[in-house]
Structure formats: structure tokens, C-alpha cells
Amino acid sequence: MKKRKIKQSRRKFFAKTITAAAGAIGGIGLTAHSCKSKSEEHEKVTLLSQDGKLVQVDKAAITPASPAEARKGIPGKHFVMVVDLSRCRNARKCIKACDHHHQLTPDRPYIKVLRMQDNPASSPYWMPKKCFHCDNPPCVKVCPVGATFKRTDGLVLIDNHRCIGCRFCMAACPYSARVFNWGKPKPQKTNHPYSPETSIPSQIGTVEKCDFCPDMLRQNKVPHCISACPNGALYFGDQNSDSVTNGSETVRLSTLLRDKAGYRYLEELGTQPNVYYLPPANRLFPFKDAPEGQSS
Amino acid sequence: MMKNEHTLADPFNEKVEKDLLAHLTSNRRKGRIFVFVLIAIILVGLFAYYRQLRYGLIVTAMRDYTSWGVYIANFVFLVAISLVGSLFSSILKLSKATWSTPLTRISEIIAIAAIMCASIIIIVDMGRPDRFFNVLIHGRIQSPIIWDVIIITTYLTISLLLLYISLIPDLAICRDKVKNVAKWKRWVYKVFSINWHGTPEQYKILHKISFTLSVMVIPVAFAIHTVTSWLFSTTWRPGWDSTNLGPYFVSGALMAGAAVIIVAMYFIRIALNLKEYLNDKLFDHMGKLLVMLSLVYLYFNINEYLGPAFKMVGVEGEHIIELFFGKYAGMYWMVQIFGLILPIVVMIFKWGRRPLPMLVLSFMILLGAWFKRFLIVIPSLQHPYLPIQDVDESYRHYIPTWEEWAITCASFAAVLLIITFLIRLFPVIPIWELKEEKESNSKPNQK
Q: What percent of chain B has pLDDT over 70?
């Protein structure tokens, strides 16, 4: 009874913020570029506008959302990820795609595929782990300057122009999802100014993590790790429309979680993650340990 | 203008003034060498910090799992030390423990020096010190870091006021009696004694203010270390996720603070030739106080580890095994035995409360206190819920680099330098309070 009330009020809150956000800013991150390169002039991309319609825009006209714009979520959405542990065989394509897209060096990836074993009697399994984009995020709670923030669409992002590098969020995150730029980051190629939605370019002395690729979400596409997985282990979608996709099949989120006994890692901490796991039962692949040196 | 009763020629008063003002005019070679060494250590630390600013925190041994290191441990240690100011100028004063009067100013000076360096060290730990002002511009009151910033500034302000208010009558004495010093010092004495003439009204105001401040400082002092403990206990890390952490930190801080006072007493009484004032009896008192504070800390220590060690739940259990039998076991047991149990046992006996044994034991307690903070901060971070895999070998260990040690040593040198500077500038034992005490003791009708 009480729970339902809270949920309703949250929904109302989201609805209110969304209308306010849509009213306040015109572009929601799609600001027009005045100078267009000739080659890109006629290339069109499909984008989700603020009123939820798909529109065709010149590719060159898109710049990623500014730090201020990136604080507002994509209206009407609440993004979730589902990881089917029975399908992961540690192919590590998600890590590669993520590293490539975010221009990360292999020593500090956003995604980790961990070798897990719940108890000595059960078989080990591989657990792909990104940021859980918690609905009650410990990192956001402790940040002294609001450099890491929670959006209406469920995403937890970082503004590395505001981060002071205190690393309290790293201490607070129970999932070790965050990485820090201890030294000068490797130079990254980009034509666009920094945006918390692309996390590029990285900055020395600031914290970073998996961002669920909001620049892809703006284009109504799934994050890079999802499409990179060769086994369809990763699903992504919108909780509000109750559908998730792994690139080849689109399923109902509620059915998937119900039928396959979906759970969230360390539910008892009350962080309310937006990443669900499906237990490693009826596996697609037998467990094989990683070759030497790949994971220790 | 009313005649000042305190300046009446009195053999006791004259002697006190002569003894306690003597060091303000002397300029000994040993002292100069000491200052030179301190400055050299600070310069090495500054060079290390320059390297850190240039290359980033990569020059430290901190990495993604051990994301806090000796800087934070040292910060907690310095905050702990600073608590001593409130112990002497407030708790002991309000409980009318008159034996502690000669130590009030030393304790205030140490408190101010420690808290200043604690705030510097926390800036050193920041990845982006250039964005320090974001804390003011974008500060979120919900974050425990902001609570810490607020409480540290409050405590520093009250401590400075406490030091200054109780200095005013002595500054007036310096203004009147100390002539053979640099011009700027005479200027300081003149300006900062704000026209003090020791009239009864002035004393009445002084007592009122210092009483108010000493009451005010107690909750702030408890808060400063409790809030610092909340930086840890508001997270889920093993060893931090504990409701015991606040009183555990406060009790440990009071113990370390008393030990610092003993070390300071020992060296000040030699350097400034004040054996008569910082006498063996005072060491005996301090020893008893230290035993009591250590026992309280021992209690919270047992309380902190017994529960988790009995239950051995998940990562909390791993953390306990690491401390009791693992790679930190050596440090852990050294700290517990030599930094806590042995000093308690020795100082229970009267022969253990003589100056030299007390100095050695206090050093052990301080060393233990520093490494205890290391043990609180670092091993906890190395036991996250999810296993540490797929990382460079350097991410699994934490052995501080020379830059970190140099900066840590520089922070100690800076504490000592501030203390030395203030001791050279002001009478280290409150002259007027000694006089007042003598007077109230000599009046038979008092009490």
C-alpha cells in the first residue's frame, strides 16, 4: 500500500520534471551546429525529440549535450539493463566495444567481466559488470559538489568539469564501478566539446565510469556493449515501456524477469540498481576458465 | 583608571614573569638549526607536491581500489591530534582540574597547528585542487565532506579565539615588559593586547568570554572527529560500516592528544628551561589521564572488532582475517600491543609515570595512533564486495611512494614549525592564569 503510494508520487515527480525540463530548454542536447562539414551534410540520423517523436536530423547538426543540458534525462524514459548470466562465456566483446567507443586504455575499462563463484559447491560463472545506475545511488549522495548526478531517465552521470577528485564516490560505491584518472589521460580524438553524455575527453584528476552511452540513447540506439555481445547476453531497454532488447530479440522486461527469476546484485544494500541479472542456469556454454594473463 | 592588582610587586609574580618571558628574548643556535631542518623537510614535501600537481595523483601508490591512502590516514590523525585543544582548555578547565592550567596554551597551539595542516593535507589529496572553490560554489549540504568542511572551519575559528582570548592579558605583559625583541613583535604585542590594562571589568569580560567559548568548543570538538568518522561510516566498506565509529574515533583522538601533550611538555621544558613549571608532578597527572583515556579507547577498540570477528560475515570477515592473520597482521598487533596495551600497563605504575618513560610511551602511542589510522583507511578499501580482477598487479597492493611520505613528513614538519613559531612569539604557559590561581589559593575564604 505504502509502496504503491511512493511509486505514484515518484511518477508524478518525473512527469513534472519532464514537462518543466521540456519547457525550459528547447534543444535537450540537440543544439544546431552552424558550420557543417560538406561530406556529412546530407547524412541523416534519426533522433528522439523532447515530445517523444522520432525526427530526421543532419548528422553534422548534432553536438552532444552540454554539462548543464546533460543533467536532464531523456523525457519519459527509465533505462534498464538485463544481463543473462547463462549466456555469457567471457567473450569480452562488450569491453572492447566500450573501450573503443569511450577511447579507454585497456588497463582501466568501464566494464569488467568477473569470474564469480557463489559457493564452493556451485560452478563458477562470468559476470559482466558495469555501473548499476542505482535509483538510490550512494555515489550521488556523497558527492560534495554534485559532479555526479541522477537523471530523470535513471542514468547516473559524471560532469568531469565539476569533479574535484575527492574520490568519496569511489569509496561509497559498493560495486567498484568507478575509475579515476590518476595521471594524464591518453589523448582522445573528438570533434565535439566535452559532454557528460559522451564522457570524452577525459580529464586528469577526475572520476569516470560506465555512462550507458546516452549519446546512443538520444539516437534511439542501444549502448555499444549491447550490440557488441555475440551471445545476446545483454539486454537494454526502457522500464516505462516494459521492453528490452539484446539486438536480435525484443522481449517484455517484466516477463523476462519473472520467467527467469531476475535479481539485482546486493539487493539488501537498498541501492535499487537498474541492472538486473538472470541466474546462470541452463547455460549456453560450459564454464571455461580464462586463458593465462587475461584475468587473474 | 583602576589600579591593576596583578602588576603589584610580588616576588611570586616577578619570578613567574621573569621565567616565562625569558625565552621570548633568547635566540639560541640549537633553535635555529631545528627551524632550518623543519624548513628543509617542508621544501622536500613541496617538491613532491609539485611533482604531484604536474603528473597527477599517479605519483602516489593509490589506484582504483585503494583510492584513499596515507593522505587520508594522515588527515584523520591530524584531526585527532587537534582534539587535544578542547580537552585542556575546556573539559579539564570546566571540571576545575587546576593542575592542567600550565598546559592550556600548549594544547591550544598544538590544536591550531594540527587542524591547519589537516586542512592542507585534505587539499593535497584532491585530484583537482584547482577546483577547490567548487566546494563553495556547488557545495551540497547532503555530503559528509561538506559537513567536515563546515565543522573544521568552525573548530579552527573557536580554537583561534580560545587561544587569543586567553592570550590577551599575557600580551599586555609582553607589551609592558618585553622590550628587547624585533620591532614587529613589539607591534604584535601592542596591537593584539587591545588596550588591556587588567581592570576588574576587563577580567570579568575575559572570564565570561572564555567560559562561553570553552562550553561551546566541546560539542564542536566532538563533532569534528565524529563527522570525520562519518566520512567512513556512511559507506558500506568492511571496517567502516559501523555505528561504533564515532565514539571510537573520538576516544582514540583524546588518547593521541594527551600523548602529544606529553611529548611537547618534555621538549618544551628542556628547550625553554621550564622544569619548575612543567614538573614531574605534572607528568604524573598526565600519565594518570593518559591511562584513563587509553582504557576508554581500549574499550571501544574491543567493541569495534569483537562483533565482526565473532560473526565473520563475508567481506567483513575477510577484512578481519587480513588484520588479525593476513598481510596487515604485523602492523595491527604492533599497534595494539605497543601503541595501546603496553603503555597502559606501564603507566599504571608510578615509576612508569616519570618524564622519560612517559616520553617513550607517548611516542609509541603516537606512532601506533598514526598506523592505526592507516589500518582503518587502507585495508578496508582492499576488500570490496566484488572481487578485484582484471587489473594491473599494482592495483592490489598499496605501498606509499616517496612523494606520499615526503608530503606526510612535510605536514608533520609544518605542524612543528607552526608550534615553534607560536611558542617563540608568546609565553607558552599562561602567566596571568598562574597568578590568578596563586591568588585564589592564598585567599583562605575562597571555596
A: 97
Residue owning grid cell 613567574 = B16
Cβ contact, residue pair B55, A142, below 8 Å: no
| B189-220 confidence digits (pLDDT tens) | 999 999 999 999 999 999 999 999 999 999 99
Model's pTM, two decimal places? Answer: 0.90
Class of domain A79-278: alpha beta
- Domains of chain A, residue spans: 2-71, 79-278
What are the Cα distances from residue B42, in Å, to A114, A214, B36, B127, B406?
A: 44, 47, 10, 21, 8
For residue B257, the distance in angstroms to the closest alpha carbon of chain A comes to 27
**Collapsed DSSP state (helix, strand, coil) of residue A257:** helix
Which phi and psi (to 5°) does residue A48 adopt? -95, 120
Angle subtended at Cα A88 by Cα A83 and Cα A93, rounded to the nearest 5 degrees: 95
DSSP 3-state of A80: strand
Q: Which three cell numbers stand for residue B140?
A: 551540497
Q: How far A293 CA lies from chain B's nearest CA (Å)? A: 9
Does the distance separating the beta carbons of A206 and B63 come in below 8 Å?
Answer: no
Residues 154-173 on A with a CB inside 8 Å of B are 162-168, 170-172
Q: What is the DSSP letter of B3?
A: P
Does A180 sit within 8 Å of B127, measured CB to CB? yes
Q: Mark which residues 108-137 of A lie under 8 Å from B by CB.
A: 108-109, 112-116, 129
> Do the chains contact at A182 and B387, CB–CB below 8 Å?
no
Mutation test of the interface with chain A: which of B235, B380, B381, B394, choosing the one with the most A Cβ atoms within 10 A? Answer: B235
- Contacts of residue A269, Cβ cutoff 8 Å, sequence gap at least 6: A174, B236
Question: What is the set of domains in chain B, with CATH numbers?
Answer: 18-441 (1.20.1630.10)
pLDDT bin (cut points 50, 70, 90) of residue A40 is very low
